[in-house]
Design brief:
The protein is α+β, with helices and mostly antiparallel strands and 144 residues long. The chain has a single domain (2-143), classed as Aminopeptidase (3-Layer(aba) Sandwich), CATH 3.40.630.30. It contains four helices and seven strands. A hairpin with a 2-residue loop joins strand 3 (50-61) and strand 4. It is globular. The two termini are 26 Å apart. The mean pLDDT is 93.
Length: 144
């Protein structure tokens, strides 16, 4: 397995992992549109030529970044890939002088909230009707 930056050839695999893992439905073109904003913030884990996990983040301010998506193929969950990706994302943030990272998770996704809390995030507030299906989100923040 290898962690590396996203490449355009990864689009189909990333989209498939997102569709299988996340409840939001994203247009595949969104992934390619994110690349020019901060290529170093788009990381994947490849296993035997196929992307099995990814994290996509953007710089949201001078010293701020935001994780837009993190997903791990169901067959690879529990192996620490999400943690590895997040830590590598933090390293990319540090290179840019980013001092805080934010993200949102579904209020009902307790597993994700626990995962991010273990990585040093804390809950800032609830975000009403954040998701397309009307579910509230929880805004989390971590200082680097």
């Amino acid at each position: 397995m290898q962690i590396r930056h996203f490449q355009n050839r990864d689009l189909a695999d990333v989209w498939q992992v997102a569709m299988d893992s996340l409840r939001e439905r994203y247009d595949p073109s969104l992934f390619a549109q994110l690349v020019p904003y901060w290529p170093e913030g788009l990381l994947v884990i490849e296993d035997m030529g196929r992307v099995v996990a990814f994290v996509f983040g953007v710089m949201s301010g001078v010293s701020q970044a935001r994780v837009l998506m993190l997903a791990v193929d169901r067959r690879y969950r529990g192996a620490g890939l999400g943690t590895l990706l997040t830590q590598e994302f933090f390293r990319e943030c540090a290179k840019k002088g980013i001092s805080q990272v934010s993200l949102e998770v579904r209020v009902g996704n307790i597993g994700a909230q626990r995962f991010y809390t273990r990585l040093g995030f804390f809950i800032v507030r609830r975000v009403s009707r954040y998701y397309s299906d009307g579910e509230d989100g929880v805004l989390l923040l971590r200082y680097l």
